[in-house]
């Protein structure tokens, strides 16, 4: 017999964006509370998870990373399958990653339909080396109708907020 307290909400979240924008680091930060400078440290698993309680609901977030296989459509498609929320990330110091945001959003929508999404400008601690202007970012976010968060995974800035927002959005539509 299933009791109400056994029921748990689990959400598959995918983090997409060009290589090296900080996707793996964000997952590691959120799920393990750690940060490493090592580039593309293999986490060895497909996803990490974290449980949170929000509004009396227990929610389990499963955060999926594309594990450096961003360029391989067949692989990324398998990662996206069944995703219920998505982070589209780019880096403050990488203009190409900003230009690719639309493409990533579309890829996820093609595979998953319209799911809660958020735009993340990571590496905000490197604002001195920025290659995108704040107003460019804001206008793209507005045009795509996406909430924008500026994060530093390194400094642990705004990471929690990103996932709280997605969970709230998700709970509002189920
Ligand atoms: P991925 O390829 O998108 O998964 O990117 P990674 O998570 O492997 O990160 C790429 C590099 O950026 C690594 O050296 C990270 O340590 C670094 N990095 C990630 N987030 C931040 C951040 O917020 N600030 C800074 N300065 N470096 C970061």
Bound molecules: guanosine-5'-diphosphate
Poorly predicted regions are none
General shape? globular
Q: Roughly how many Å is the radius of gyration?
A: 16 Å
Q: Count up the helices.
A: 6
- Proportion of strand residues: 15-25%
* Distance between the amino and carboxyl termini: 24 Å
| Lateral strand order in the biggest sheet | 2-3-1-4-5-6
Overview of this structure, please?
With 174 residues, the protein is of the alpha/beta class. It is built from 6 helices and 6 strands; from the N terminus they run βαββαβααβαβα. The protein has helices at residues 23-32, 73-80, 95-99, 101-112, 134-144, 159-173; strands at residues 9-16, 47-54, 57-64, 85-91, 117-122, 147-150. The protein has a 6-stranded mixed beta sheet with strand order 2-3-1-4-5-6, with helices on both faces. A hairpin with a 2-residue loop joins strand 2 and strand 3 (57-64). The protein is globular. The two termini are 24 Å apart. The model has no long low-confidence stretch (mean pLDDT 90). Guanosine-5'-diphosphate binds at residues 19-25, 37, 39-40, 122-123, 125-126, 152-154. This is Ras-related protein Rab-23.
């Amino acid at each position: 017999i299933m009791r109400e307290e056994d029921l748990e909400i689990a959400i598959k979240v995918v983090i997409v964006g060009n290589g090296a924008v900080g996707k793996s680091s964000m997952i590691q930060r959120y799920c393990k509370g750690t940060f490493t400078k090592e580039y593309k440290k293999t986490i060895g698993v497909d996803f990490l998870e974290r449980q949170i309680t929000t509004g009396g609901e227990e929610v389990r977030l499963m955060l999926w990373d594309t594990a450096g296989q961003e360029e391989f459509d067949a692989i990324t498609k398998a990662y996206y399958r069944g995703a219920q929320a998505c982070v589209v990330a780019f880096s403050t110091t990488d203009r190409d990653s900003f230009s690719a945001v639309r493409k990533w959003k579309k890829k996820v929508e093609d595979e998953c339909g319209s799911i809660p999404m958020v735009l993340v400008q990571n590496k905000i601690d490197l604002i001195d080396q920025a290659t995108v202007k704040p107003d460019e970012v804001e206008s793209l976010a507005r045009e795509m109708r996406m909430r924008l968060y500026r994060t530093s995974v390194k400094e642990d800035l705004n990471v929690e907020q990103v996932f709280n927002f997605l969970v709230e959005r998700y709970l509002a539509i189920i």
